[in-house]
Amino acid sequence: MLQGALAGLAAGGLYAVLAVCLTLMSRLVRVVNFSQAATGMFGGFVAVWLVTETGVPIWLGSVLGVLLAGVLSGVIGWIAATWLSEADTTTRSAMTVGPLLLLISLSFILFGNKPQPFASIISGPAFTVGGVVISQVTLVTVSLAIVVAVAVRILLTRTAIGTRLRALSERPTTAELLGIPSKPLSIAVWVVTGVISAIAIVVVAPTQSNDAISLAMLIVPAAAAALLGGFKRLDLAVVGGLVLGVLSGLVAQIDEVSLIRNFLPFLFIVVLLLWTQRKEVWDAAR
Amino acid sequence: MPHADSGPARSRALRLAWPLGVAVAGVVAGYLLSVGLSGYFVFLAVSAVTAAIAILGLGIVTGSAGMIALCQLTFAAVGAWVVSLFNVLEVPGGFVVWLIAGGLAAGVVGILVGLPALRLRGVNLAVVTLGFAAAFDVTLLQIQFPGSKDGIPVLRPEGFSTDRGYFFFSIIVLAVCGLVVFWLQRGRWGSSWKAVAFSERGTASVGQSVQQAKLTAFAVSAALGGISGGLLAGQVQLPFASSFTPLQSLALYVLAVMSGAYLIDMAIFGGILWVLVPELLKRWGVPQDWGFVIFGALGVQALTSGTNLGQGIRNLWWKRADGRTAAARETAKADAAAHPAAVEPPAEASVPPVPAAPAASGEPALSVTGLTVQFGALKALDDVSLEVPAGSVMGLIGPNGAGKSTFVDAISGFLPHASGTVRLGGTALGRMSPTKRARLGLRRTFQQDRVPPALTVDAYVRFVARRRVTADEVAEVLDFFGCPPARTRLAGVDVGTRRLVEVAANVLAKPRVLLLDEPAAGLSHEEHLELGARLREVPARYGMAIVLIEHDLDLVRTVCSTLTVLDFGRVLASGPQDEVLADPAVIKAYMGETEML
């Protein structure tokens, strides 16, 4: 039982990292980025290709793949910042469905639709607690999620650039009038979250089902986790990701409820939305 | 105008007949194709038809109702699953009954998934539907379609069992679905979908339940998805989960957005593209996955530019048509100018005195006691009490921030935390929803533009009226307020005029009380005066009381028999116009201390 829960923790860490990125995007550049996991998936696949086909070292391939993911994310951000700078969150988010579709299909063309032979960057047990093994992957993803959340929080509240970013997200027009370079800043947010997501995916992919669809659809549990914090709070996004991972691990242990496991993120989403939006009634303030 | 009598009747008959004619022509064309096409193309054509029906459904939920739904093929899978199950169980009635059952089942699933959507909007719904699609996809792989293990093929309908026959059958289904969608789009449901996409507040304030509008859109869309899936089950006879993946749902969504699928012809065009693009790629020896790459890129283009193919074509067409009618109007105007005798003299040269406030004997149309609204520490309305006599026009004036719009919001039910009692002609409104209040006869207009641009003036006026009105009634009220003719599309009308149409439509609804929140904002000075003159006549002509929020004191003086002055959320004075305007406190608050009337 405990083993199952802890086995889910690695996935939970991944959900948490992606959820933190989603929350960051939602807060700073007003978008729910449906291609958040897909750019990471694509970067990861390119890394695998580089390692297996051109023989570059694993670390170099991974770095290049992660950077590519950042660039891809930046391109989507550039599109959003150029043509949808005044659009509402819904329209901006809907736009990211296009890249999601495009990246999955492109990876089918380039790499086929089979799971990829990801070489593990990190593997093996980290330590054992009460007879239960905690893998290094679990340790790395969970700490990555926490470190990113804490770092982002410090960045936003303690630094000048954080203040600018918050100004940008809360009052975009005013920020621009004050001379804050809104476009480069928002594209930078896209690039950074793209890089972070890709790192998490490259680390966890060797231990997960890692075909293009499974990896790109990590956006669903990630969004579920981000919803716990209402796409606003980073700490709750981390908690949401970990809880969802542990729950999936637990449910996977019991054969009778394995069908529920598929619906777990969906149910998580529905329940959270109904709870958080119970007081929200009208679409406009007046 | 006696000569116009036969015209509308004929055009009405024509309006009813032409969609039927198009459907019949489509079925005939389908029959000819089913005989003429080669076998391979017949199979492809059925795929195009099934995709077209699914896209037709997406057009309703994403195009008309403005919600993002990313699980259309999941609904299709539900339809296909039910058809397969009924086939295995040999349910009497045959394929047609199974197909309808599949559509209904998908509709029910749509309602269940859509239930959280009652409160949700926009991007949250996208998350919900994507989550549902992903979850159902994995589950479908595990449970499989009924009969697929034993290889029991789905029995096609009798008489249509060959591929050619089945294509003809699918064309008939498409024609029926197209007709149903056409009539729904033209009817109340269609108007409510387009209204809810534009503004939920605006929708509720005319007595249309927002929840119902969203749920019907979701259910109809899902049901069409289910029918599409059921047809596909009959086409391939052994459906597999690989036909209903989330990836394909995403592609279908993108395709619906870029083709403009709320237009029926574009949904059919989208269905053809769905089959044509991969087929062409196959012929050119290009991997078929490039099809979705192309869809993805075009989808980004469509979503960033906010345009789509169908609307683009129509806009071009309308531009030309509008140019022609404008030219015709110019000629008519020139003719009228040439014969000045034909022009009616202005209705009132001099302004008659304001009708006196009706005797206080009758029950007031609206009575408010102790209305208080608190936002945090700020009391936006503080113990406001007033009465609006039946059949009168009451002016509600006060400086900016006095609480006038908050008053309208509270009375019309948009501020459920307001305390105090509001009685509409003796009925206490309590905590009723805005929708319910509107249905009881309390209507309001908005300071912001809340008129859905996707509708025509006629459709909007009928939607707001919420009762059976004849074309003559519509034309009369539009004419009375100087609005554009009924056939005009609201998208082509400026905001000031849209708000005039909003007033006219709400007047036609014949409520007990109509709250007008600065209806003249955005109008020219002449139009402003014209509106004032019309509003004076409304109580007698249409039988309702009006509460008018207005900044122009001259207008207030000529229109309103009674006045209420708000300042800092409190009633400063209330009563007959001349008494209130003479009140020193009012003068001080409204005109400033130094300036005297």
Give a description of the structure.
Chain B: This is Branched-chain amino acid ABC transporter ATP-binding protein/permease. Chain B: One of its GO terms (molecular function) is ATP binding. Chain B: It comes from Agromyces soli. The complex is a heterodimer of chains A (286) and B (597). Chain A is globular, with a radius of gyration of 19 Å. The mean pLDDT of chain A is 87. In chain A, strand 1 and strand 2 (132-135) form a beta hairpin. Chain A starts with a helix and ends in a 10-residue tail after the last helix. Chain A has helices at residues 2-29, 36-54, 58-83, 89-95, 97-111, 136-158, 160-170, 172-177, 182-204, 212-216, 219-228, 234-253, 258-276; strands spanning 125-129, 132-135. Chain A has 286 residues and is mainly alpha-helical. Chain A has 13 helices and 2 strands, in the order H-H-H-H-H-E-E-H-H-H-H-H-H-H-H. Chain B has 597 residues and is of the alpha/beta class. Chain B has helices at 6-36, 39-64, 72-89, 94-114, 123-143, 163-186, 188-198, 200-205, 210-236, 246-259, 264-283, 290-305, 309-338, 404-411, 434-440, 457-465, 471-480, 495-508, 525-542, 553-559, 577-582, 584-591, and strands spanning 366-375, 378-388, 393-397, 419-424, 427-428, 442-444, 513-517, 545-549, 562-567, 570-576. Chain B has a 6-stranded mixed beta sheet with strand order 6-7-8-3-9-10, with helices on both faces. In chain B, strands 2-1-4-5 form a 4-stranded antiparallel beta sheet, with helices on one face. The longest helix of chain B has 31 residues, at 6-36. Chain B is elongated, with a radius of gyration of 29 Å. Classes of the chains: A mainly alpha (286), B alpha/beta (597). Chains A and B meet through helix 4, helix 5, helix 11 and helix 13 of A and helix 5, helix 10 and helix 12 of B.
